[in-house]
Specification:
about 10% helix, about 475 residues, flat, mainly beta, 8 helices, 21 strands, 4-stranded antiparallel beta sheet
Length: about 475
């Protein structure tokens, strides 16, 4: 132990070999200033040895705190313990529970994030609903609310029984199951007389309520009423299936002249008077085998108007008709029950050969027509004359010629052959630098034919490099074969 007197200074080492406390004794009381330096921990103790140093100034009643982790420096704080043991300046307390008084008094605890309990009971927050509070009676709730209407218990039932409620003017409501609504006073908006008719629905009271009725008396609801002398006016629709007595002469509008007379007396004369486009005169003919007073042979002539192809007649009957022959000329034909059509001519009859007959070339009882002669095997199916620039000067059944370069042309046929097995004959003009040869340049297709023009510079060599256009600028081609 070191003894100090007033204003005395003791320098030196105070050592103690144990961890027991060290006592300092002062003869002057109170001690106004004490500086202890060079304090060393016991041998083997954790941490470094050093002085305990405080700040140059501090807040009165402030709780001192260690500054850093070395245990040698104190620092000021904002937590104040006044002389009455009141604590101020605490921003937050990190504690699981806080005891107010002692352990047997009030305990504040953290239940979960943002939730606190007092003595184990969760404290309701401002944002919580009423379910967090204890059960509340209607009377207790009425004591809290300041603007309620009515008194008594709250109503939460889906089908409550209200004795004499005053509903005021509800914004909406469904009165499906309501009863007892007085017609005379319970419904607003009725026109004059409607409430009286609803209470006593007679025809007279309905007539009083209706403002645009026609006629008077009792209402008619029967499905088949008997009306004595009604004036129907102009109905928008109606079915007169069972009506009788309609006068033809005056009861039907829109009839043409003399039609009413024919309907009243349907004679041939009255029908002729009603018709406006008839031919001839006399009685109408409806018999299947009528007798004409003048035969067709004595008519001198008769006219047959053009028609499209008619249907086939029955067996053993020939049907005569006239039609356009396809060239703008009206011709007379007859057709048998098999559908064979024969054009009538000066010799008594003429049958045009079909495409198949032309291609076969063996029939001797049919004639060749301009529209089918080309189908014969001996006839050219297509021909043309063109120049090196693929300009066609004259042709038959040719669409165009494609120029693919010097000495290279493709002929495009309009109506194709049935296949590529047909014959093409080619000739053309010469070239000033040599003889021109015209060859089939590629396999023929049903609708195209390739022609190659080659110049024999030495009279012998014909190669692709010798392609040339003719100087006498024309090429001829003609094609034979079976056409599609």
């Amino acid at each position: 132990m070191l003894n100090f007197t007033e204003n005395s200074r003791q320098d030196g080492l105070l050592a103690h070999s144990t961890t027991a406390s060290v006592r300092l004794a002062f003869t002057q009381n109170p001690v106004t200033r004490l500086a202890i330096t060079g304090i060393q921990g016991p041998a083997g103790a954790a941490g470094a040895d050093g002085d305990v140093v405080g700040p140059a100034s501090s807040t009165d009643n402030a709780v001192a705190r260690w500054d850093g982790a070395l245990g040698g420096t104190l620092q000021n704080s904002g937590v104040i313990v006044d002389d009455s043991n009141n604590i101020t300046g605490i921003s937050s307390i990190a504690a699981t529970t806080i005891e107010l008084g002692h352990a047997s008094d009030t305990t504040l605890a953290r239940s979960s994030a943002g939730v606190m309990s007092v003595e184990g009971v969760v404290v309701a927050r401002f944002a919580d609903h009423l379910g967090n509070f204890a059960a509340t009676t209607s009377a207790q709730l009425a004591g809290v609310i300041s603007d309620e209407t009515g008194s008594g218990a709250l109503v939460f039932a889906t089908s409550p029984t209200l004795v004499t409620p005053a509903l005021g003017t509800p914004a909406s409501g469904t009165l499906t199951n309501c009863t007892g609504l007085p017609v005379s006073t319970g419904i607003s908006g009725f026109a004059s007389g409607i409430a009286a008719w609803l209470a006593d629905p007679t025809s007279a009271k309905l007539a009083t309520a209706v403002t645009d009725e026609t006629g008077s008396g009792a209402l008619v609801f029967a499905t088949s009423p008997t009306l004595v002398t009604p004036i129907l006016g102009t109905p928008t629709s109606g079915t007169l299936t069972n009506c009788t007595g309609l006068p033809v002469s005056s009861g039907i509008s829109g009839l043409a002249a003399n039609v009413a007379a024919f309907l009243a007396t349907p004679s041939s004369a009255n029908l002729a008077s009603a018709l406006t486009d008839e031919t001839g005169s006399g009685a109408a003919v409806f018999g299947t085998s009528p007798t004409f007073t003048t035969s067709l042979a004595n008519l001198g002539y008769f006219d047959i108007s053009e028609i499209s192809v008619p249907s086939n007649p029955s067996a053993n009957i020939a049907r005569f008709y006239s039609k356009d022959n396809g060239s703008g000329t009206t011709k007379l034909y007859f057709r048998d029950s098999a559908g064979t059509e024969t054009e009538m001519g000066a010799g008594g009859g003429f049958t045009a050969a079909t495409q198949a007959e032309q291609e076969t070339g063996t029939a001797i009882d049919v004639g060749t027509t301009p529209g089918r002669q080309h189908y014969h095997a001996s006839a050219s199916k297509a021909w043309l004359r063109f120049n090196a620039a693929a300009t066609v000067a004259a042709s038959y059944n040719i669409t165009s010629v494609t120029d693919s370069g010097a000495g290279d042309w493709t002929v495009n046929i309009a109506t194709d052959f049935s296949s590529g097995n047909y014959c093409g004959v080619i000739s053309g003009g010469t070239n000033t630098s040599g003889i021109m040869d015209y060859l089939i340049d590629a396999a023929s297709a049903a609708g195209t034919f390739n022609i190659g023009g080659f110049r024999e510079d030495d009279g012998l060599d014909v190669t692709a490099t010798a392609r040339a256009d003719p100087s006498v600028d024309e090429i001829h081609a003609c094609f034979f074969g079976d056409q599609a």
